[in-house]
Amino acid sequence: MKLLADNELIYGRLLPVDEPHLVGRYNKALKAFGLPETKLERFRIDMTGFSPEIAEELEDKQYLDPNGVNRRFVILTPEQETLPVVHTQFSNTAGLMHAFFDGNRRAVHAVTIKDALYGEIEDPVALVSGVEDLLAIDEVRFRVMSAEDMLGKATELRTLVDRLETSKDGWRDDAMLNRMVELARETGDIRQNALVPDQLVFAHTSYWANHFDGVFIFRDGRTTTVICDSQAPGFRRSRPWEVSYIDIADHARIFEYLSKSGRLQLPRASWVEPSEFFTHRADMAIADLIRLTDPDVDLIRADRVWLQTWMHRNAGLIAEQRIYPFLQEATREIGATGQVKISEVRADWRLMLCRATPDHEDQWLVNRLLARLSPFDFVSRFVFDKQGFYDAYEEYSDSYRAYVVNVLSTTYLNDKAALRARLYGLKGHQDDA
After folding, report:
1. Bridge partners (DSSP) listed for residue 268
2. Among 181-185, 316-320, 358-362, 366-370, which is the least confidently predicted range?
3. Domain ranges within the chain, ordered by starting residue
4. Residues 267, 304, 406, CA angle at the centre, nearest 5°?
């Protein structure tokens, strides 16, 4: 992973924390979580406050996510809102954090001047033991505290102000008035500074969960569709009267569901040709085939002439694997007819030719699923399925790792938005992409 870290392909764009008062506030949050305080004088954090350096120090990558639910967070500064989420068990953690920042912007800015916010994104379950537990999560509540008890002091001051305004003799209570002055010195004028967050409950819609080798949950009004390994506990047994289940190995049914629900963009010349999506996938397929047959080949130095020579020498292998010829034929069909007759494509390969509908609200989630189902395309995997990418990267040879890092550094990192727009038709950003 060092090569990834050196090229900012893992733990990139994190916020340095090196001011003693911020380290002190972070330690108070750790102590409140029942964790040892850090001895580090400098570390980095993501949007949720997760720090890879502290995870290494504690020898616990799950220190903010101990049971895979009820994610903990630490907010030291409003600047965290613009950071990625680099470690999570749910695909919508970043979205929920954004919703919290959006709904409580004044409070976050006011409190973090003198304090830090910390707490949990509370789910209705304490432990995920089966699919039913994931289905039970339809909303979450932020339970928020503060390291210096600024929230508690603001709440106390608000109570005393209300008492003063409603009580006939409150102005005669010297002890109460002195306490109000003491609190106001710390909190400031709470009539001007909204210190207590007021939007704490948020919907938990379609998402991916990193449980049971990955579970995709899609919500369509009153119906829910679960896509995961059929061996996951609770598969087809949890709420079968209102939940549809699809085995993640059943590409035909996945295609049918995604296309019928409007989440899938079928192959048409209008987007395939300008994006060069099929060409990209074909190049990825050949690179993966070279990796499997000649893992020590230095692909960074391989030019088009070398690749063509390798392909001629291994024509039989390429024909046997079939993905490259399939994508080439699809490219020719698009050029000749403007579309691919998807009904004539073998059912388990149709998804290889598709991408998520760019304007659908589940576009990132669908592309995550599609990336997982075409694991040879490490670029798509890195953009949409980072956990899957990192797992696969561990199995690569050193030379292929160098090639992967080179490709991602010279293409994706140069202009993320441009590559996402061209290949996947996506606009805007995603916080862990």
Report:
1. 339
2. 181-185
3. 2-149, 152-187, 265-424
4. 80
